[in-house]
Write a structure and sequence with these properties.
Layout: H1 5-19, H2 27-34, H3 38-50, E1 54-57, E2 63-66, H4 75-83, H5 108-124, H6 127-136
Antiparallel strand pairs: 1-2
Helix pairs in contact: 1-3, 1-4, 1-6, 4-5
Length: 143
């Protein structure tokens, strides 16, 4: 499994919003601090906005902010919203395994264990955990 730039940047943006809970944050500010194209961040924030993870405000003091407390978001929620399935193999993407080989596939148990480990990890780490970790790190122009 490989997380794309979209997933990595979504986490970085959500950490930025989590660090600034009491104010709206402009995408241009996130882009400058993170060294990411603001056009690309706009595409990602649209996905997060549609999911109800962030709200927006227009105007001079506008921007984006979280709709919930950071501890109410998991890394898994955020990544699945922008990446889709985090399954290591396509046959485990949906609720029911549609693979015609499922009943005799020797590797299926391994793939399921790997998927369960991934899900357990990404669903046990919250945005609040990442915000706290960020606070411990040196603050530079680029986080």
């Amino acid at each position: 499994m490989k997380i794309s730039t979209k997933g990595r940047y979504a986490l970085r943006m959500m950490i930025e919003f989590g660090m600034n809970l009491d104010q709206y944050t402009k995408i241009s500010q996130v882009a400058a601090r993170q060294g990411i194209s603001d056009k690309y961040l706009e595409q990602i924030v649209t996905l997060l906005h549609r999911a109800g993870y962030v709200r927006s405000s227009r105007g001079a003091q506008g921007g984006y902010m979280l709709t919930r407390k950071p501890e109410e978001y998991t890394v898994g929620m955020i990544l699945r919203q922008v990446e889709g399935s985090l399954s290591p193999v396509p046959c485990l993407d949906g609720e029911n395994n549609q693979c015609e080989r499922a009943s005799y596939c020797a590797a299926l148990t391994f793939w399921q264990q790997l998927k369960d480990a991934i899900d357990q990890t990404v669903d046990s780490v919250t945005l609040a955990d990442l915000v706290e970790e960020q606070k411990k790190r040196p603050h530079d122009t680029l986080m």
